[in-house]
Design brief:
Elements: E1 5-7, E2 13-16, E3 37-42, E4 55-60, E5 72-74, E6 94-96, H1 108-111, E7 112-120, E8 125-134, E9 141-145, E10 149-156, E11 159-163, E12 167-170, E13 174-178, E14 184-188, E15 193-200, E16 224-227, E17 238-244, E18 247-253, E19 260-265, E20 270-273, E21 294-298, E22 308-313, E23 316-318, E24 335-342, E25 357-360, H2 370-378, E26 384-386, E27 390-396, E28 401-402, H3 404-407
Parallel strand pairs: 9-17
Antiparallel strand pairs: 1-16, 2-19, 3-4, 4-19, 5-18, 6-25, 7-8, 7-28, 8-15, 10-13, 10-15, 11-12, 11-14, 13-20, 16-20, 17-18, 21-22, 22-27, 23-26, 24-25, 24-27
Amino acid sequence: MPPVYLSGFGNDFATEALPGALPVGRNSPQKCPYGLYAEQLSGSPFTAPRASNQRSWLYRIRPSVRHAGRYRKADAGLWRTAPCHEAEIPPAQMRWSPAPIPPEPLTFLQGVRTMTTAGDAAAGTGMAAHIYLITQSMADEYFINGDGEMLFVPQQGGLRLATEFGIIEVSPGEIAVIPRGVKIRVELLGEPARGYLCENYGAALKLPERGPIGANCLANSRDFLTPAAWFEDRDTPSSVVLKNGGCFWRGEIGHSPLDVVAWHGNFAPYKYDLRRFVPIGAILYDHPDPSIFTVLTAPSETPGMANIDFVIFPERWTPAEDTFRPPWYHVNVMSEFMGLIYGVYDAKPLGFVPGGISLHNAMLPHGPDADAFEHASNTALAPVKLANTLAFMFETRFPQIVTKHAAESPLLQDDYQDCWAGLKKHFNPEKR
């Protein structure tokens, strides 16, 4: 059966997989229905203001203290956590070709490769940007990320995320967010999968304020989907892998930990179809800042300077007159990790392909390549639809430090900076 979802973002949901499993009128009755245990999962301090307080009450077959076993150190593979300074390379604009999906069996935990880290996970700031390559579903194995929430961005192949809250199925063009501390099992929907993963160490992702845009457009709350209650009652030998402080720990238990029969609250996984994003833009001349493409933001203590902005560049019309339409050349205080899900990115029609990555760190100049500049500067302007395209950015206020794996990868394009070599000097003081 396909998963069942609840609509809305940040709602106080209530859902049960068995009738009457949710206690009525109280969170922790003396005895829960069906012999369940009551357990609260908190995503914020107890005393956080009501508007930012995140918690859910879970009614489960066994409490989580029975889900850990005795942990022993496990291999983290190519997963890295900030701060991570294992490669010294000069500052430069960087780009990688897509990673091929390998033939050997790789589960989600084996298939994550960290490309950059930023900030400090222990301090609750910054992020890590990863790719994942998955050729095999996790079986009787579960993962808990105690360091941050995870934003999945599939690029090829779909995933089935079995969580303790319910089932999420996500395919290219969609995203899924798993909050910190939520137990998951990652399975393939069919073919092997490749995609991007943002690990957020800071404040939880939320919808950005619209400001003068008003009440509509961008990502609308009703288009976000949270899984309805679903559970497993399976007594079978299983492993639980916990990521904590950048280290991986494995414990053995005798049952599935995805045993939540009912839950209510506002701290839960969710998915979103990026094709439902409602873009806005200039309808006369010039174009606004790319912040108008922000889907989700993780704020910092400095207003307007996000710990992470998740930004997309979707299908859209470009009607502006007497305007250089691609992104302008800029030197940015934020650091941009960019990927392409499908199609062609208008500022980089060559070299930046689906599954690829570019990194433009803080204060490093970047912008359209020479071919894109010449075309945009000289083409006859008429309304044009940028069709069948979807790119994104993980943008952060911190410098993104490249890992050893990324720095030594044969996929790193040594000639990336040559894409600007053809930019000519056009200046002529005698000719306006």
